[in-house]
Write the structure tokens for this entry.
Amino acid sequence: MNGSNKRGKVKGRLNVKRSMKMFSKAMKLMPGGVSSNARLWESAQFCPLYTPCTIFAKRAYASHIWDIDNNKYIDYRLGFGPVILGHSYPAITNAIRREEWKGTVYALDNELEVRVSEKIINMVPSAEMVRYSVSGTEATMHTIRLARAYTKKNVILKFEGHYHGSHDYLLYSTSPPYNTKARPYKQSMGIPGAIDEMVIVETFNNFESIEKTIKAHHRKIAAIIMEPIMGNASGIMPKEGYLKHIKELCDKYDVLLIFDEVKTGFRVSRGGAQELFGVTPHLTTMAKSMSNGFPISAIAGQEEIMKLFGPGNHAVTHGGTYASNPLSLTAAEATLNVLKNRSVYKKINRYGTTLMKGFSKILNDNNVPSLMLGHPSMFQFIVTNREHIYNYRELEPNDGGDLFSKIQYWLLTRGVMVDEDYQECWYMCLAHYEQKDASKTIDAFEVAVERAKSSHFKATRFSIPK
Ligand SMILES: Cc1ncc(COP(=O)(O)O)c(C=O)c1O
């Protein structure tokens, strides 16, 4: 393998020697060598150089990320979406620097909570009251507890291909094998069988089947939880009128509608997907883009429901040592101050649209049958002969993902990083626009597609030294 040149730009094959060395060490200390399973590029199909593997990051700034082999990439993973402005964005890092000496955990309220809540309530249509947690997982876990308490019903309806975090209640049918008959499909060992009864899994974008299910089971369904844009399934969009249809069903049958906007919130527009599509859910979970990458999540919704989190004999438990951490709130306040300006979204969307159009043309010119899915700020292409993709099962690529994985590899060698999993999206940030990364990315994509079409490499199993 060749090394990288002085500017850190990768030529020819990818040099990830140091990463692989670090990975062998990590494997001995941490299961799988990672702290989050999603970071392991594990299937031969998705990780053509070594499998399993992970690349170790050294630092990230603006739209770029560097690995420990000094390869420099334009980053389109952006930490799985949070970095809406750019890594270490000055407005955020300056605010953090000003506040860091004030301590990091109080176990008391602080004024920032109030200020950030005001901003969220101003920006997000469904938000009448707000509570904070640290991760998206905690937010959805507490939100379905709230929904169960409010409706006094137990079952949660979710959709195939929608991901809501890693707690037991919703870790079903998030990315099942395309041909499985199992529904709900458990995505992890260790989830008690009793919980299977608490979840119903539906097909996204099917107006009739959701209506039939709600009519049949509404007496036991507390809530429908959904990603309004399928951010964990290549950005599949809702059909026209679908979200409205679901909201109407929910109102008619006393079922709460929860939009999980952990990915779409503050990304696809100032007020998230609910503003974009003009459909207001009863409850909303948000995280990621709300703080440009600092650990914080929010639950927001109708006052009457949210108030159950308050005190009282039957109050719904919500809390956590690190909830409303002042540094994360500082980042959230600074981020929302930038994001309240709608021109930021215009820039991000313009940038994303340029890439979407450029990629489509290149795929077309290379006779790769494909569809572009998603929103300009988070999108993906799928190698398929279909004319539309409306649900998870339709996502299966013609070639099982082989061409995508080769393109992903050749993009890495050209200094462009996108996730190895085509079910993830390409994420855009303001820094991509400001640094004018589009033409470099499109050029890299063109070379990657051409190389991928003539590449026949197979994954090499990375042998872990004993
Ligand atoms: C829509 C959605 N909800 C919830 C989560 C869980 O968030 P976290 O990883 O912060 O627990 C994610 C994570 O990607 C997500 O995409």
Notes: The domain at 17-87+343-461 is CATH 3.90.1150.10 (Aspartate Aminotransferase, domain 1). The chain has two domains: 17-87+343-461, 103-339. Residues 80, 135-137, 140, 163-165, 227, 231-232, 260, 262-263, 287 surround pyridoxal-5'-phosphate (CB under 6 Å). Residues 152 and 222 are 7 Å apart (CA to CA).
